[in-house]
Specification:
The complex is a heterotrimer. Chain A is α+β, with helices and mostly antiparallel strands. Chain A folds into 3 domains: 90 residues, Roll (Ubiquitin-like (UB roll)), CATH 3.10.20.740; 86 residues, Alpha-Beta Plaits, CATH 3.30.70; 240 residues, Rossmann fold (3-Layer(aba) Sandwich). Helix content of chain A is 25%, strand content 19%. In chain A, the strands form 6 sheets. A 7-stranded mixed beta sheet of chain A has the order 15-14-20-19-18-16-17. Chain B is α+β, with helices and mostly antiparallel strands. Chain B has 2 domains: 60 residues, Arc Repressor Mutant, subunit A; 79 residues, Glutaredoxin (3-Layer(aba) Sandwich). Chain B contains 7 helices and 4 strands, in the order ααααβααβββα. Chain B starts with 6 loop residues before the first helix and ends with a helix. Chain C is α/β, with parallel strands linked by helices. Chain C has 18 helices and 11 strands. Chain C has a 5-stranded mixed beta sheet, with no helix packed on it. Chain C has a 4-stranded parallel beta sheet with strand order 3-2-1-4, with helices on both faces. A two-stranded antiparallel sheet of chain C has the order 7-10. The chains are: A alpha+beta, B alpha+beta, C alpha/beta. Chains B and C meet through α2, α4 and α5 of B and β3, β5, β11 and α14 of C.
């Protein structure tokens, strides 16, 4: 690194050669207002919001396209800069409908934010506003409001440079310039909703999130996307104990600024629907609610009496859960009887930018914890179908509903002498069980996932689990006859036992995760 | 009906593309060729140009709508474009436009029912010394008067 | 005054190779290829004092010298024939009457920066001009002035004629390059500059038609002769295009430093219809207007126009007599800029239309107190704050018209109608 010393608003900053003023400022915690600049996209320089004053230069310069050079003195708050910035905001608002009360972006709109920060007066624009296309459906998840668009072209550049799918363009010129989709095309690439995230205003909004809740009511919990083993960092945003949306969290080691559409909406399938709130035991006439002690005793005796057992853990269970489950089930299984659910599918080129070919975010970690092998779950499923087991303990996976083997698994599971299903809802698989244990989903858990590339990342509970359900780790601990206060205690134990995790703790993992050492991956 | 260049246009297309150091640069001449062959540049034509130029169709749309000389809708046989910018305005361009409107009984942006004329106002065409002036298709007509413009239109069949 | 640029205009068959050669055409190219290295050529053009005639007036030789010699990428010269500045029609005359001078000049420029493929970008509307130029290119190629091993010198040059498609902004050099790359004519952010990262990311020089057409004469007659014409900072001759209310509109070639009033009164025959002069835009529509009483002592060169608070620009002289409504004139130009803004930068995209709407109101009787201050403020917020100089070009005219003819604007607002017509 070649250090370069500059001053911003009188403050001395050391940055590196090749960085622009806006990057140097950002690194130093100084926000230079901007719209079109995005660190992951090419420089467009069109919004003119980041104009700054640079000593010895007669004209204001855009901070996004000005390289920091030794001795450069930058002013971001001079009267000239503030006036230019005020003017840009005034320009951007002249044809804007100022419909904040019905705009989903309200509360996270950069027009609003900068307007408030700069304490602006009423608009001087008294002419007729130009009207533009409203509520145009761009794709399954994205809707466009042309009147709110500021033509920063972030969306266009994202689709040209990141997905290379080029669905959008700027059409026309002058103040008729607007963003458009080619006639009869849709914006439906697997990363499409990222354009909503990077849209600084309310022009592109998320149809799934539309009109659900004002953003300022959202509780934001940093966590990890449960969609696949890439482990994209997300913010789980909830309202009244329901997930309203996922937003990507920036993590250059994993997902940069992005999140795929499938992962983004994976919470619907994983969290919605009626929850199980009591353990149940099969008696004549069906499943009946029992207390936890009764249910857990039934599991222990049932498994002991019906060896060999098949044990299948969900790929969405945490390392902490997998660690306990592995120790628990090794008492009851023989070789190849304990697996984490993991299946692959084909990905398109665009999907490969972000997605992994599975839907098991922690398959890697589970295997580290001793759940399963490289052979994978397929032989185990086949053996279940072939009637090789007398019992099974299935956690969090609805095997009876698998599109390919579901029917055969349903029939095989139905014939077992003893079946335990631990899940959040009464799935077709749970309906077959002798004992049903109500547990928690990814959004209710604390714990860690180890992604496909060996990075350990932290899940935080964003939702409160329903009364009557227990955390998966708690269920396993009770079956093991062990006691932990919280998942961190389990992690402390596993990090002592597993060399790959040695020295790690929740603090070190932090908000952005920690890579396992290369030799252990 | 699938849009496709005639064999003759295909040959021209290949020659145009071969002329440039990079294929993208041939975009405007290829769009001209398409407009010449198909009359105007419909979404189908844009899709075709996108295919033969190996560029995303949205980019073709962006280019077509940026420039004034590409028509995305059918226009009359004679596209009358009267310059309205200051030097022509000083020389009475508005009267010329008025005379044309009256004679053809159409407004700006409109086409005569027989499809013979479409009338537009355009910005400066670099003919200010011989103002007022207009362009009809490829040709400039300069030093217009309310009288001679009518005679001119009569000659355009 | 000696004619340099218009020397061949009236010659018979000036359009043709034969006609051009009869006037001494292509002797400069022969001289360059036989006697001059690119470095020497650049020095010669620097010595001539030739400055860019597209509007910005940047020294031509210096512009060429910014092209890195050791850059392994192809290098390009683009002749800017996208003449679109309202009031300007000089390039069109050269294109239609003396196309070989442009071709020869472009080849000379290409040789100076060691380009082997170069372009002439002509505005799309000039269909006839494009035909004339294409014929000239074909003739030049047939005579061995273009192609491989030009005149046995070992130098290869291919020259491609490219038509624009209707966009004023393509006259701005980076907008032109974006257009030539097959895209919208969106000007590019600088840095990087075209000299190092121009067409297709390669070193590129964009020169105006008039600039390039001056080169053959400069080479054959010598830089010293050219530099002897004009003033200290404005060398040689310049084409001025005169339009509006004069007796003899047209293209004139004058020595730099020629008295402006004399030019209007004598060369252009004075005002038409016996009316009085009210104002004149001296350098194309984007340059500030001058009142009749401001013309005394102004000479036709870069320094003098600048000292008078305007610029020489492209040399488009738009003359307005006392019957002209200056509000309407300002509105007309604001409408032009609103129509031609490329739409990239927020201030220009939104501001040009804002100004146009206010001026439209004022002209049509709905002006309000405070409107003029608002226009001045808005135009001030556009100028200097955009990617390309269009922002300045669009902001100067309305501000200048209001400042120079404030009374007339105030009267429009007070009367609630146009007070001239």
């Amino acid at each position: 690194m070649d250090p370069v010393k500059i001053t911003i608003d009188g403050r001395e900053i050391v940055t590196e050669k090749g960085k622009t003023v806006i990057q140097a400022a950002e690194d130093a915690g100084i926000d230079i207002p901007h719209y079109c600049y995005h660190p992951k996209l090419t420089i467009a320089g069109n919004c003119r919001m980041c104009l700054v004053e640079i000593e010895k230069m007669p004209k204001l310069q855009i901070a996004c396209n000005t390289l920091a050079t030794e001795g450069m003195a930058v002013k971001t708050q001079s009267p000239k800069v503030l006036e230019a910035r005020r003017a840009v905001m005034e320009f951007l608002l002249i044809n804007h409908p100022v419909d904040c009360p019905i705009c989903d972006q309200a509360g996270e709109c950069w027009l609003q934010d900068y307007y408030m920060e700069h304490d602006l007066a009423a608009s001087r624009f008294e002419e007729r506003k130009e009207h533009e296309r409203k509520r145009e459906i761009f794709g399954p998840y994205v809707v466009f409001d042309g009147e709110r668009c500021i033509k920063c072209t972030r969306c266009v550049r994202f689709l040209q440079e990141v997905t290379r799918t080029d669905e959008l363009t700027v059409v026309n010129r002058s103040d008729h310039a607007t963003i458009a989709l080619f006639p009869e095309k849709t914006l439906d690439n697997p990363l499409s909703v990222n354009v909503v995230d990077i849209c600084p205003v309310g022009a592109l909004t998320d149809r799934d999130f539309r009109f659900k809740v004002r953003v300022w009511y959202l509780k934001k919990t940093p966590s990890i996307c449960p969609g696949c083993s890439t482990g994209c960092n997300i913010s789980v945003e909830t309202y009244q104990n329901r997930i309203a949306r996922f937003k990507p969290r920036v993590n250059e080691a994993v997902n940069s600024h992005w999140l795929c559409d499938e992962g983004r909406y994976s919470f619907h399938g994983l969290t919605e629907g009626e929850r199980l709130t009591s353990p149940m035991i099969r008696q004549e006439g069906g499943l009946v609610a029992v207390d936890w002690d009764t249910a857990l005793r039934a599991v222990a005796t049932g498994l002991a009496a019906n060896a060999p057992a098949a044990a299948i853990l969900s790929g969405r269970n945490t390392n902490e859960e997998a660690f306990l489950y592995s120790r628990l089930m090794k008492q009851f299984v023989s070789d190849g009887g304990l697996e984490v659910f993991y299946r692959e599918r084909e990905l398109t080129e665009v999907e490969k930018i972000l997605k992994s070919p599975d839907r098991s975010p922690n398959f890697r970690g589970a295997r580290h914890m001793g759940v399963g092998s490289e052979a994978g779950v397929e032989p185990l499923l086949k053996n279940i179908i072939d009637g090789k087991f007398r019992s099974a303990y299935v956690v969090g996976e609805d095997l009876a509903s698998l599109s390919d083997l579901g029917d055969r698994l349903k029939s095989a599971l139905g014939k077992l002498s003893f079946l335990v299903v631990q899940d959040t809802r009464m799935t077709p698989t749970a309906a077959l069980a002798h004992v049903v244990l109500p547990s928690t989903n990814f959004a209710e858990k604390e714990g860690t996932y180890t992604n496909r590339r060996g990075r350990v990342q932290k899940l935080n509970p964003a939702l409160v689990a329903p009364a009557g359900a227990l955390q998966d780790w708690e269920i396993f601990a009770r079956l093991l006859g062990e006691s932990y206060d919280r998942p961190a205690d389990i992690f402390a134990v596993l990090s002592r036992q597993l060399p790959a995790y040695a020295g790690l703790d929740y603090e070190k993992i932090g908000a952005l995760g920690a890579d396992l050492e290369a030799q252990h991956q | 009906m699938a849009v496709k260049f005639s064999d003759e246009s295909l040959k021209k297309f290949e020659a145009i593309v071969a002329r440039y150091p990079q294929k993208n640069a041939a975009m405007l001449p290829v769009l001209y060729l398409a407009q010449q062959e198909f009359g105007y540049i419909s979404p189908e034509v844009m899709e075709y140009v996108s295919q033969i130029m190996d560029v995303p169709v949205a980019r073709v749309l962006g280019v077509v709508t940026f420039y004034t000389m590409f028509n995305t809708k059918p226009i009359g046989r004679h596209h009358i474009q009267v310059c309205r910018t200051l030097p022509c305005a000083l020389a009475g361009a508005e009267r010329i436009t008025g005379a044309i409107k009256e004679k053809l009984k159409i407004g700006l942006g409109e086409t005569t029912p027989d499809g013979r004329f479409t009338l537009s106002e355009v910005e400066c065409l670099a003919s200010c010394g011989t103002a007022p002036m207009m362009q009809v298709n490829d040709d400039y007509y300069e030093n217009l008067t309310e009288k001679n413009v009518g005679e001119l239109l009569d000659r355009l069949k | 005054m000696e004619k340099i640029l218009l020397r061949n205009i009236d010659a018979p068959d000036s359009q043709t190779l034969e006609g051009y050669r009869a006037c001494g055409g292509y002797r400069a190219l022969e001289k360059v290829l036989r006697e001059m290295t690119p470095e020497k050529l650049i020095d010669e053009v620097k010595a001539s004092g030739l400055r860019g005639r597209g509007g910005a007036g940047f020294p031509t030789g210096m512009k060429w010298s910014f092209v890195p010699k050791d850059n392994p990428k192809p290098k390009y010269v683009v002749c800017n024939a996208d003449e679109s500045e309202p009031g300007t029609f000089k390039d069109r005359l050269l294109i239609e009457k003396d196309p070989h001078a442009i071709v020869e000049g472009t080849i000379i420029a290409a040789y100076a920066i060691r380009s082997h493929t170069s372009f002439i970008y002509i505005r799309g509307e000039m269909f006839y001009g494009a035909q004339v130029l294409q014929r000239a290119l074909d003739e030049a190629a047939g005579a061995g002035y273009l192609g491989k091993n030009v005149l046995g010198s070992g130098y290869d040059i291919d020259l491609i004629l490219h038509r624009g498609a209707g966009a004023y902004i393509c006259g701005e050099e980076t907008g032109l390059l974006s257009s030539l790359e097959g895209g919208k004519g969106w000007p590019k952010i600088k840095p990087p500059f075209p000299a190092t990262h121009g067409l297709f990311g390669c070193p590129t020089v964009v020169n105006n038609v008039e600039t390039l057409a001056a080169l053959p004469w400069i080479i054959t007659e010598g830089a010293a002769r050219y530099a002897a014409i004009g003033t200290e900072k404005s060398k040689g001759t310049k084409l001025f295009c005169v339009s509006g209310h004069v007796k003899k509109p047209g293209v004139y070639e004058v020595d730099m430093g020629y008295p402006f009033k004399k030019f209007l009164e004598e060369d252009c025959g004075g005002m038409a219809n016996g009316r009085k002069l009210k104002g004149v835009i001296p350098g194309g529509a984007s340059m500030p207007v001058l009142r009749a009483d401001e013309l005394d002592g102004i000479t036709m060169d870069y320094e003098s126009f600048q000292a008078a608070g305007t610029l020489l620009g492209s040399g488009g002289v738009i003359v307005m007599d006392e019957s002209t409504c200056m509000v309407r004139a300002a509105w007309n130009l604001s409408r032009f800029f609103a129509h031609e803004s490329c739409g990239q930068c927020s201030p220009c995209r939104e501001g040009c239309h804002w100004i146009e709407k206010i001026l439209n109101r004022v002209e049509h009787g709905a002006g309000k107190p405070g409107d003029l201050e608002k226009i001045l403020s808005v135009s001030g917020n556009i100028g200097g704050n955009t990617i390309c100089p269009f922002g300045d070009a669009a902001s100067w005219p309305p501000a200048a018209f209001i400042k120079k003819y404030r009374g007339e604007f105030d009267e429009h607002i007070a009367a609630g109608k146009c007070t001239i017509h």
